[in-house]
Amino acid sequence: MPTEKLQLYKCNICGNLVQVILPGAGELVCCGEEMKLLPPHTEENNELTEKHTPVIESSEQGRFVRLKYHPMEQNHYIQFIEVYPKDKSTLHLKYLKPGDTAEFDITNFEEEVEAIELCNIHGLWRSK
């Protein structure tokens, strides 16, 4: 199956995570096995959704992508937040680590954006 721009694929053996920059028709392989597409979660109206769905907010301080209720502890944290316009023409990425605040200042980015985040336990989530 052909890949699509900005899709994420994960190796279930070593944990490598790769993102498609330019789509193609080939198979993505790591550790001798096909990598698995990592689709964003789409569940709605449950506790996991509330903690994991990136929220885009504007205030006097600027515009931010935030995860207000997610822990940022050693064993459970947001690994990165990624922001891009709907046409996927640019990409902004912020890596996070335990103890960081789970937010990304996007004040100077395009007006219409989508955001995704990766939780080390619960996987990939997309903004609504």
Notes on the structure:
The chain is globular. The strands form four sheets. Strands 9-8-11-12 form a four-stranded antiparallel β-sheet, with no helix packed on it. A three-stranded antiparallel β-sheet has the order 2-1-5, with no helix packed on it. Strands 6-7-10 form a three-stranded antiparallel β-sheet, with no helix packed on it. Strand 3 (29-30) and strand 4 form a beta hairpin. It is 5% helix and 38% strand. It contains one helix and twelve strands, in the order E-E-E-E-E-H-E-E-E-E-E-E-E. The protein folds into two domains: 8-37, Rubrerythrin, domain 2, CATH 2.20.28; 47-126, SOR catalytic domain (Immunoglobulin-like), CATH 2.60.40. It is mostly beta strands.
Features:
128 residues, mainly beta, Rubrerythrin, domain 2, Immunoglobulin-like, three-stranded antiparallel sheet, 1 helix
The number of distinct structural domains comes to 2
* Low-pLDDT ranges: none
The structure class reads mainly beta
Our measurement of the CA-to-CA distance between the termini, rounded to an integer number of angstroms, reads 26 Å
- Whole-angstrom Rg: 15 Å
The 3D shape can be described as: globular
Give the proportion of residues in helices: under 10%
Number of strands: 12
Helix count, per DSSP?
A: 1
What is the second-level CATH architecture of the largest domain? Sandwich
| Helix and strand pattern | EEEEEHEEEEEEE
The biggest sheet, with number of strands, parallel, antiparallel or mixed sense and barrel status, is: 4 strands, antiparallel
Task: Report a brief summary of the structure.
With 128 residues, the chain is mainly β.
